[in-house]
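Run log // design_07
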C-alpha cells in the first residue's frame, strides 16, 4: 500500500527521508516567495533541506502573489 501525506489538501506519495526541499523539486515549485507549513507549523527557508516529512503529515506550500 502506498503511504501518503497531504500536500495542499491533495494526496501525495510519501517515501522514507522525504524533505520539504525534495517535495519542492518534485513539484517544481520555484516561486520567489513561498510559505511552508507542516502540521500548521511554519518552516523557515533555511530548514527546507533538513525538515523531514513523516507519513500522514499535512504539508502546505503556498506561493505569495503581489499585485494591486
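design_07 sequence
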Amino acid at each position: 500500500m502506498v503511504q501518503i501525506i497531504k500536500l495542499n489538501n491533495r494526496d501525495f506519495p510519501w517515501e522514507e527521508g522525504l524533505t520539504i526541499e525534495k517535495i519542492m523539486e518534485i513539484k517544481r515549485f520555484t516561486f520567489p516567495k513561498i510559505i511552508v507549513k507542516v502540521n500548521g507549523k511554519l518552516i523557515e527557508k533555511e530548514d527546507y533541506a533538513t525538515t523531514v516529512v513523516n507519513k500522514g503529515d499535512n504539508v502546505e506550500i503556498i506561493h505569495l502573489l503581489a499585485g494591486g
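The chain has a mean pLDDT of 93.
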